[in-house]
Structures are given as structure tokens and as C-alpha cells.
């Protein structure tokens, strides 16, 4: 059986294990509120306030103007302090009521903060730091944090009370909706957890009867369901202006629908954007929710460029019981998957996937480039015939085209052609070109042009990507997205493609091209970024898969491989036994597959059952845990003082609020730690003490203990240390100011010890190991000259002089950008200097 078969079996098992643990019941993000605008004329409407008090699905909205020491509802003298007293009385009258409050305001937000902090609602406010997931409604009620403030407008300064709506919610307007509209302008916000629909009362409807109440007009519910399906989010806030009394049944109608909820995850995180091969679903974030009408069958087919989904489809029939959570695992594809052409231009025009095919052309030649070695030169009127686009899987399909290109003569008012044809007609012309210096993606009257302008005599990596499901044409320059648009129909041309020629008027490349690759699938952004730094595409696996293997030979090969693996395992076990007996002073990591917390690279927590529970640690809970772990080591097990914790983690918050925030965070952390063996957090005499023993494993603790060996690490211990830190820098992607000092300490330890290990490898001429160690050092200090020299030494030893120069030039660029002055040594001087001093 193939490795893919076993891989899918393992993935299916993991999905069953995690499918029920990711989403919490009754999340705040699964609730719907009607947002009632309170104008001066509405403020004294007793009937309206009675309605708000009787219903627990109403949010409030105000437009506020600032005065000298207060704020008032616009066009009135009603002060914010009066409004807050009314909100406080609503909360006091019903202890289960959650009240979102939306404020439109222009000015210094600190004015509103100061007014609210001194008001009766101050003890009931909930604030969620950006990036954390919204808690359950049960938590908000039990913690009595039931008033949530949001703000829109031109705001000055930052608030710890107000949430900027755009930072937390995808927003659309019902008033600008048309049945066939494609609302992709908000795609950058698609991964926000909340969904707000504005101007719902202005939705264009087909009903004209004045006698029919809004609750009875099906257009309103259909719009909400369509929006729910289209964006994979249940509408959380529905703005109805001052017409809330006309929509009193709409929330109940929406809540009557069941939902399919889940997450699409890759390693350690949700995907930021997921497309769906379904006509009525547009795009969603990694966390999704879709409505289900009673009795209907739903088929969900997620996809994201660069990933393979498992399962590929979610099929929910009327007879099935809906799961609490559906989990889809997104596995990164190999760069060779979907590759239909790969031209390296190393002295010949050869498609590495079909090396026997020959290609004709005019006026082209090969030349040696100082940066890229052998490249294809295409001056004016030169081209290479690639043939029918069908053989590359381009027509009526998603595709990606990428290459390195350098222009000697970019036309100011004309086109430089990279790949294209001369066919005319809508969707039939292919022109991947520069137009007046701008990267251009043309499918004949179905085009997109980037704002970027390229220069002569500079190597660029260009990528053009088309996604048929969304009609997206996108352009990437040096691995970075530089623009695109959606809704384009696919390319359908049939005429021959050329390198260095496009359009009927005969545009030319006028420059050089290298590493042209074509895929019949859309590449992911990470894949495109890897190509831009010249990652090699491994074609050996695909080529080997196409070779016929006799059955008898296959059986013999399996037997031989099985015996080889058995012998290898025996040798490995024997060496491990010897390794463990050599010295009692070694602190070597034995990384388990459960009951561990990883701090190098991205934070990861695996409980005692082997389940990845990292997502359960919200940012503040995670910060408290890590603060205690690091200070446990730093303070010789005495722990972290509670006063220090308060000052650091809740800086600038009033003491009475800090105590409550700390208590809530600590309780949540302790509930999570129950899932781990031999680990606890103990309060003792004003300190929080982290306790861990036995089977519990933490990579940072192991690395820290290795750094404490007075006589320095042995060779085996250095390798063990490298094994711990090679996954990435400490808490990669985390930005807490208090962490900088600790990062600096461990960074210096990593650099010093890895330089010792690299010196040993260098003596043994282990070039690949030297390069790996050097790269890890540069992750901690990208201006470390010794590490750069190690990279250069390794490349020179393997004959990659061009790559060695590339590493040196990259270092010089970083140096000049950081130091404000050019690096003083040339490549030759640099190499000689460090060679003589090593």
C-alpha cells in the first residue's frame, strides 16, 4: 500500500479524535443580536426600552459627539452618563442579559474610556484582546462581564474598553445587496470571528404590500441565510436602525436553523481563508458555520491553494445527526503536484517532465549570468514555441505560471512579453507581460494590471495565478502578492503558446528568463514564496511513480526494505542504549508525543492523551502560563510574584480590575492544566509556582538546563541542544515586551553553543550540517558574520559559488538596511578573513 494510504488512515483517525473538542458549546460568536439605533427621539420611548428589557437578543447603537468633559447623543443634550445608567439598569434587571453596545464616535477615545470607567457599568464590561477567541455566553454571565463595547469612526488613541468593529468583524451592507452580487471587497476580513450586517431595514425586497409585516416577508430571512452560507459565518449583529419593533421575530427564525460548524486546520493553526467548491458559498475563514434547512442534503467541498483537504468532502444527509464540530485537515502539497512543465534553461530548452520533446524557436541563445548561471536570452523578436496550451492544463482550469526574469529594455509605452499567444477574442488571448513596466495578467479583455513598476537589469520572480472557483487573477512579485481581482472567467484559448512573445502585434521579452514552471492548479502563497527564493522542485518522486515496476521485483524490494528497516532499528536501539549509558551529566531531550508544552517555534500544548490543545490556550492564558514557567527557571523555583505578574500582564489597568482578570485567567489555566500529568500551578505566599516533574516535557526547560552545565556542553549535549532549538526561535510570532530580555538571553546561548557545534561539523567537513546550524543562528541574529561565513563555506565546498555570493550579498543588504552604512569587506575579503581566523 502507498504511503498516502497510510497517511490518510492516520489523518482520518486524528480527525475523529479532534472533531468534538475544538468548538465550545454556545460560543458568543454563535449568537445573533438585532442592533437598535437610539436617536434622541427614541431615547424617551418607553415602549422601546420595555421591548429591549424583555428580549435578550438586542444590541444598542449610538452616535456620540464629544463635549468639553462629556459626550452626548448627536443632535441632543443627552449625556453619555445618562445612557450608561440606563444600560446598567437593564443589566441589573436581568442577570442573564448580554448587551453589546455600538458607538459611532470621532475624537479621542480616552474621553469615552474615562466616562465609562467612572460609570455603573464599569464592573460589567468585557474586553477581548485582539487575536483571542470569543468566550462562551456562560462565561460572560458567570463572570458578570455582560456589557461589550464596540466603536467605529475616526478614533484617536487605543482603548482597553472598546473593540474596533473592523478588527473583530466582517461587515457587509444589506442596502447595497443585489441577488447576483459578488461581495469580495471584504475578503481581507473574512477570518474575523464575528459578522455584522448593516442597514438591514433597507434591504431591497420583492414585496410591496404595506399590510404584510416585515417578519412575514421571506426576503429578509432568505438574505440572512444566503449571507450565512456565502461567508461561512452566522450573522452576529444585524443593524435595523430604528425599526427594531418591526423585526421582533427575525432572530427566532434565524435560530430555528441548525448549523454545520467546524474548522479547517493546518499545522498548529486555522487556515486564514478557505474557498468552497459550492455555487452558493463564496469564501470563509478557517472557522466555518453553515445553515442547514430541514430535510436537505448538504455537500461541502473546501479547498485552499497549496493544500490537500482531508476529508475532501463533508456530506450531511437529512438522516444524519449533526456533529458539534467538523474538522478538516489541510495538508501542504508538494511543489511537484500538478506541475505540467518545468524549464530550467541549463543550456537546452527541455521540459524536465517530458525530456524527449523538442522545442523550436527563433533568435534565442543561452548565456552565463553572474547571479543565476546559465539562462535563456530572448532579445527583440526572439521566442520559443511551447505548443498547444492543452498539454499544460491551462484552458478552463486553475493554473499557475512562475519564472525568474530580467529585462534589458522595459518599454515605457509598450509591452514586454514573458509568455503568451497571438490569438484574439474574449478569454482566448494569453498575455503574461509587462505593460509600460507594470506586471500584467491578460486573458484578452479579461485582464488585471499591477501598480508595481519594474526596473531594467534586475532579476525578478514573477508568478501569475488563476483560481477558477472564484475567478481570481493574481500577480505575485518576488513571492509577495501585489494585486489581483476576482470574477474573471477562465482562459479558453487553443492557439500555440510562446516564451518571449505575445499579442497579435508581436510583443517581445527583451531580456532573460530562467526557471519557467507551469502548474494546472493554483499554488498557495507559501509555495510561491518558496519558489521566489529558488527552492528546488523535486521531480524524482513523480518520475519514479511513472515507471512500470514488475510485480516480482516489487515483492523482492519490499522484503529487502523490511529487513533493512529491522536491522536499522536494531542498530538504532543499540546505539541509544550506549548513548544513555555514556554519562550521567547529560541532560538529553527525549521528546514524547504527549504531555508536553513546546515553546521553541510556535507555542504547542499536547495533553496527556496526546491531543493538541494549543487552541484552548487563549493569548492571555498562554501568557500567564509562559510567564510562570520562565520565572520558575529564572528564580530558582521560587516562582513569579503575583505583584510582578499584575504589573506586567495587566499594566495600566486599575487594581480592582486586575485582581478579577487574574482570577478568571488563572482559573481557566488551572482547568486546562488538569489535562496534563505531573504539572501544576501553586499559589504560595504571594507567588505563583510552576511545578513539573516525571513524564511532563518542555523543550525550553530542557534547553535551559543544558545551558547551566558549568563545564560547558559535550558534543552529544550540543547536538541535543540543537535538536531542541532547531524548530524555531523562542515563541515565534509572540510579541510581549517583557519577553525581550529572556529572548536575548536564550538567543545568546543558542548562538554561542551552535557556533561550537558548527566548528566541530566544519572540522569533519559535514557541509550540510554546517549549513543547517548556520541558518538556525541567523534566525536569532541575521547579522552574525560567523554564521554567514559558515553558510558561504558550506556552499563553496559543494561547488555552489553563485549561491555563496547570494548569501553574502543578502547579508550586505541586511547590514546596510540595519546599520545605515555599507559593509566594508568584499566577498573575497570576507571569505579570506574568516578562513584565516577560523
CATH-level-4 superfamily name of the largest domain: Phosphatidylinositol (PI) phosphodiesterase
Give the overall silhouette.
globular
Quick one: how many beta strands? 44
Radius of gyration: 31 Å
Task: Give the uncertain stretches in residue-range form.
Answer: 1-25, 178-187, 541-554, 577-589
Main beta sheet: strand number and arrangement? 9 strands, mixed
The CATH class label of the largest domain is Alpha Beta
Structural class: alpha+beta
For the residues shown, what is the average pLDDT?
85
Could you provide a short overview of the structure?
The protein is an alpha+beta fold. It is built from 22 helices and 44 strands.
SSE layout:
Layout: H1 3-18, E1 33-37, H2 40-43, H3 46-54, E2 58-66, E3 71-73, H4 80-93, E4 99-104, E5 107-108, H5 109-117, H6 137-142, E6 147-152, E7 155-156, E8 162-164, H7 165-168, E9 169-173, E10 194-198, H8 218-231, E11 237-239, H9 250-255, E12 258-266, E13 269-270, E14 274-276, E15 283-284, E16 287-292, E17 298-300, E18 302-303, E19 307-310, E20 314-316, E21 326-332, E22 339-343, E23 361-362, E24 365-369, E25 373-378, E26 383-387, E27 399-407, E28 415-420, E29 431-435, E30 438-442, E31 448-449, E32 460-467, E33 472-477, E34 480-485, E35 497-499, E36 501-502, E37 507-508, E38 511-519, H10 525-532, H11 540-546, H12 551-581, E39 596-598, E40 604-606, H13 619-634, E41 640-641, H14 642-649, H15 655-673, E42 679-684, E43 687-692, E44 697-698, H16 699-707, H17 715-725, H18 739-763, H19 767-780, H20 785-797, H21 801-819, H22 827-836
Parallel strand pairs: 1-2, 1-11, 2-4, 4-6, 5-7, 6-8, 9-10, 10-11, 12-21, 39-44
Antiparallel strand pairs: 2-3, 12-13, 12-16, 14-15, 14-18, 17-20, 19-21, 22-38, 23-26, 24-25, 25-38, 26-35, 27-32, 27-38, 28-29, 28-35, 29-30, 30-31, 32-33, 33-34, 36-37, 39-40, 41-43, 42-43
Amino acid at each position: 500500500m502507498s504511503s498516502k494510504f497510510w497517511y490518510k488512515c492516520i489523518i482520518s483517525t486524528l480527525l475523529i479524535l479532534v472533531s468534538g473538542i475544538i468548538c465550545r458549546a454556545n460560543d458568543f460568536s454563535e449568537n445573533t443580536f438585532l442592533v437598535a439605533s437610539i436617536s434622541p427621539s427614541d431615547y424617551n420611548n418607553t415602549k422601546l426600552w420595555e421591548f429591549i428589557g424583555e428580549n435578550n437578543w438586542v444590541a444598542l447603537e449610538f452616535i456620540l459627539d464629544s463635549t468639553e468633559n462629556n459626550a452626548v447623543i448627536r443632535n441632543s443634550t443627552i449625556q453619555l452618563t445618562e445612557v450608561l445608567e440606563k444600560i446598567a439598569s437593564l443589566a441589573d434587571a436581568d442577570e442573564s442579559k448580554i448587551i453589546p453596545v455600538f458607538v459611532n464616535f470621532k475624537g479621542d477615545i480616552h474621553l469615552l474610556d474615562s466616562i465609562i470607567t467612572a460609570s455603573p457599568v464599569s464592573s460589567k464590561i468585557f474586553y477581548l484582546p485582539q487575536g483571542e477567541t470569543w468566550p462562551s455566553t456562560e462565561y460572560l454571565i458567570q463572570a458578570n462581564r455582560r456589557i461589550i463595547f464596540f466603536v467605529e469612526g475616526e478614533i484617536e488613541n487605543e482603548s482597553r474598553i472598546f473593540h474596533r468593529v473592523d478588527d473583530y468583524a466582517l461587515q457587509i451592507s444589506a442596502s447595497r445587496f443585489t441577488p447576483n452580487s459578488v461581495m469580495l471587497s471584504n475578503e481581507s476580513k473574512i477570518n474575523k470571528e464575528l459578522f455584522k450586517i448593516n442597514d438591514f431595514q433597507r434591504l431591497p425586497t420583492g414585496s410591496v404590500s404595506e399590510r404584510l409585516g416585515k417578519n412575514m416577508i421571506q426576503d429578509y430571512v432568505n438574505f440572512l441565510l444566503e449571507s450565512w452560507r456565502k461567508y461561512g459565518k452566522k450573522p452576529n449583529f444585524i443593524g435595523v436602525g430604528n425599526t427594531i419593533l418591526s423585526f421582533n421575530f427575525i432572530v427566532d427564525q434565524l435560530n430555528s436553523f441548525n448549523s454545520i460548524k467546524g474548522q479547517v486546520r493546518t499545522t498548529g493553526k486555522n487556515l486564514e481563508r478557505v474557498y468552497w467548491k459550492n455555487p452558493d458559498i463564496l469564501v470563509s475563514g478557517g472557522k466555518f458555520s453553515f445553515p442547514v434547512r430541514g430535510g436537505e442534503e448538504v455537500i461541502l467541498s473546501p479547498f485552499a491553494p497549496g493544500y490537500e483537504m482531508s476529508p475532501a468532502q463533508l456530506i450531511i444527509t437529512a438522516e444524519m445527526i449533526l456533529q458539534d464540530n467538523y474538522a478538516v485537515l489541510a495538508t501542504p502539497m508538494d511543489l511537484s503536484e500538478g506541475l505540467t512543465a518545468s524549464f530550467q534553461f541549463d543550456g537546452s530548452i527541455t521540459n524536465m517532465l517530458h525530456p524527449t520533446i523538442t522545442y523550436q524557436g527563433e533568435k534565442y541563445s543561452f548565456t552565463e549570468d553572474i547571479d543565476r548561471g546559465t539562462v535563456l536570452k530572448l532579445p527583440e523578436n526572439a521566442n520559443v514555441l511551447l505548443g498547444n496550451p492543452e498539454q499544460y492544463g491551462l484552458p478552463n482550469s486553475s493554473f499557475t505560471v512562475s519564472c525568474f526574469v530580467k529585462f534589458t529594455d522595459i518599454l515605457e509605452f509598450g509591452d514586454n512579453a514573458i509568455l503568451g499567444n497571438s490569438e484574439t477574442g474574449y478569454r482566448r488571448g494569453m498575455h503574461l507581460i509587462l505593460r509600460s513596466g507594470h506586471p500584467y495578467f491578460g486573458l484578452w479583455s479579461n485582464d488585471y494590471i499591477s501598480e508595481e513598476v519594474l526596473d531594467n537589469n534586475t532579476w525578478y520572480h514573477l508568478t501569475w495565478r488563476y483560481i477558477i472557483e472564484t475567478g481570481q487573477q493574481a500577480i505575485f512579485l518576488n513571492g509577495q502578492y501585489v494585486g489581483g481581482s476576482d470574477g474573471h472567467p477562465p482562459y479558453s484559448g487553443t492557439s500555440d503558446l510562446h516564451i518571449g512573445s505575445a499579442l497579435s502585434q508581436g510583443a517581445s521579452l527583451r531580456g532573460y528568463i530562467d526557471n519557467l514552471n507551469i502548474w494546472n492548479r493554483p499554488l498557495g502563497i507559501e509555495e510561491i514564496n518558496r519558489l521566489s527564493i529558488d527552492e528546488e522542485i523535486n521531480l524524482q518522486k513523480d518520475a519514479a511513480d511513472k515507471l512500470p515496476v514488475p510485480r516480482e521485483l516489487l515483492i523482492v524490494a519490499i522484503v529487502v526494505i523490511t529487513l533493512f528497516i529491522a536491522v536499522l532499528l536494531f542498530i538504532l536501539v543499540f546505539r541509544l542504549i550506549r548513548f544513555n549509558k555514556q554519562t550521567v551529566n547529560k541532560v538529553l531531550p527525549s521528546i514524547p508525543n504527549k504531555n508536553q508544552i513546546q515553546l521553541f517555534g510556535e507555542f504547542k500544548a499536547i495533553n496527556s492523551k496526546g491531543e493538541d490543545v494549543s487552541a484552548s490556550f487563549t493569548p492571555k492564558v498562554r501568557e500567564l502560563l509562559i510567564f510562570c514557567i520562565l520565572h520558575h527557571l529564572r528564580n530558582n523555583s521560587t516562582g513569579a510574584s503575583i505583584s510582578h505578574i499584575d504589573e506586567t500582564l495587566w499594566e495600566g489597568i486599575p487594581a480592582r480590575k486586575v485582581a478579577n482578570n487574574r482570577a478568571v485567567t488563572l482559573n481557566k489555566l488551572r482547568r486546562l492544566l488538569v489535562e496534563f500529568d505531573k504539572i501544576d500551578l501553586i499559589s504560595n505566599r504571594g507567588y505563583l509556582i510552576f511545578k513539573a516533574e516525571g513524564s511532563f516535557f518542555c523543550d525550553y526547560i530542557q534547553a535551559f538546563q543544558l545551558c547551566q552545565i558549568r563545564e560547558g556542553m559535550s558534543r552529544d549535549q550540543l547536538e541535543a541542544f540543537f535538536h531542541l532549538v532547531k524548530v524555531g526561535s523562542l515563541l515565534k510570532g509572540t510579541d510581549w515586551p517583557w519577553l525581550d530580555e529572556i529572548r536575548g538571553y536564550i538567543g545568546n546561548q543558542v548562538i554561542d553553543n551552535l557556533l561550537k557545534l558548527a566548528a566541530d561539523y566544519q572540522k569533519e567537513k559535514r557541509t550540510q550540517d554546517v549549513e543547517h546550524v548556520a541558518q538556525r543562528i541567523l534566525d536569532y541574529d541575521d547579522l552574525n558574520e560567523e554564521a554567514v561565513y559558515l553558510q558561504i563555506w558550506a556552499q563553496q565546498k559543494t561547488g555552489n559559488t553563485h549561491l555563496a555570493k547570494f548569501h553574502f550579498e543578502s547579508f550586505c543588504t541586511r547590514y546596510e538596511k540595519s546599520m545605515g552604512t555599507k559593509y566594508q569587506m568584499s566577498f573575497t575579503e570576507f571569505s579570506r578573513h574568516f578562513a584565516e581566523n577560523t
